[in-house]
Amino acid sequence: MAMYKTIRLLSMISVGCFAQSKDSEFTFLLPAGSSECFFQTAVKNGTMEVEYQVIAGADMDVDFTILSPEGIWLIYESRRSDGLHVVESTVEGDYQICFDNSFSRFSEKVVFFEIIIEGQGGDVGGDDEWAGLGEPDGSLLEYKLEDIKESMDSLYRRLERSRQMQTVLRAFEARDRNLLEDNLWRVSFWSCASMLVMLCVALTQVYTVRKLFDDKRRVCT
């Protein structure tokens, strides 16, 4: 029977920090025959994007589910190595994100996942920080405050997207490296086994041939 452990993701990093962040990633070890669940707080009419990858472990696959705050199954995937899902028009509450490895009795998995929350908390710096600044006059080279704010917000979104892509690429690299090292171990093991078998066969053939020409009978003259 699988051991279900529910982990409050907010306590993994710091209280309240994860829920306020628009972009968060996490890598954890999923033991064999167990399930891990995480909770992410969302606001009403927002968007939640979840991407996950199994970067180490035999077969590199897990079961993946997302449950709404009401307990409704929104997404279910069976024995997948990666996936990308977007939950539109979120409701206010805690969404449950679960990874299940109960079908594997011996192999543990290393799982990376990233959560991107949009429509939560406003733009960079918040509108309150801009509200205290008055409209610029003609001495500021006719730049308007809204134009500066829009440019900074656009730059921030582009930088965030670049950082997210780099994080995902690092996860792909880690998975490929683990797969390469595992394949290298298998190739090396079976190569050594094949060489040992060939050596035993060669020694056996030499011994057999020598026995054929080894005549110990005495000849009387």
Which regions have little confidence, pLDDT < 50, spanning 5+ residues? 1-21, 121-125
Number of strands: 9
* CATH T-level fold name of the domain at 20-119: Jelly Rolls
| Strand numbers in spatial order across the main sheet | 1-3-8-5-6
Mean pLDDT: 78
CATH first level of the domain at 20-119: which class? Mainly Beta
Write down the overall geometry.
Answer: elongated
How does this model look, in words?
The protein is of the alpha+beta class. Helix content is 38%, strand content 31%. It is built from 4 helices and 9 strands; from the N terminus they run βααββββββββαα. It has a 5-stranded mixed sheet with strand order 1-3-8-5-6. Strands 2-9-4-7 form a 4-stranded antiparallel sheet, covered by helices on one side. A hairpin with a 5-residue loop joins β5 and β6. It starts with a strand and ends in a 9-residue tail after the last helix. It is a single-pass type I membrane protein. It is found in: Endoplasmic reticulum membrane; Endoplasmic reticulum-Golgi intermediate compartment membrane; Golgi apparatus, cis-Golgi network membrane; Membrane.
